[in-house]
Amino acid sequence: MNGIKYFLFLLVFGVLLSSCKDEYAERIERQKEQDEASIQEYLTENKIQNAQKQPSGIYYIPQTPGTGAQVQKGSTIKIHYIGRYLNGQKIQSTYDSGQPLTVVANPGRNNGLTEGLNEGLLLLKEGEKATIIVPSMLGSVSYYGQYGYVMVYEITVLEVK
């Protein structure tokens, strides 16, 4: 008798767990679609035509080309940046303190930057100015635990070591 109860418990638990996974996957997919629509609207409203979508979903928008070394995983870089939401609200800026950020570029994100920003940094060279748009799944969700906050980073790479 106990074996049957245990089997039924496992069966019900498995069905509930599977249902939760399906709901979570659907929620993620909906968020990705919403982020993409918001990004496309932002690009259109701001007449940005040179945005390059990367396989992960981030967008790279070159402003001023760099002539120095390419940022690599593990490079120590010095950058100035402004982070904003799509509506233009500033969240953070190294310009406010006048102190650039020095950080080790690492897509594994153990350096205090979001996954999407870390990935975007690897697209840049020393001296380059660019904008990186990070969908919430690679930015605010992974960093702040919140859905729906697409981030726009204006970055200037000052130094690559």
From TrEMBL:
Catalytic activity, as annotated: [protein]-peptidylproline (omega=180) = [protein]-peptidylproline (omega=0)
Matching InterPro entries: PPIase_dom_sf, PPIase_FKBP_dom
EC number: 5.2.1.8
Keywords from the UniProt entry: Isomerase, Rotamase
Group of enzyme by EC: isomerase
Stated family: Belongs to the FKBP-type PPIase family.
Listed name of the protein: Peptidyl-prolyl cis-trans isomerase
Protein's organism: Adhaeribacter aerolatus
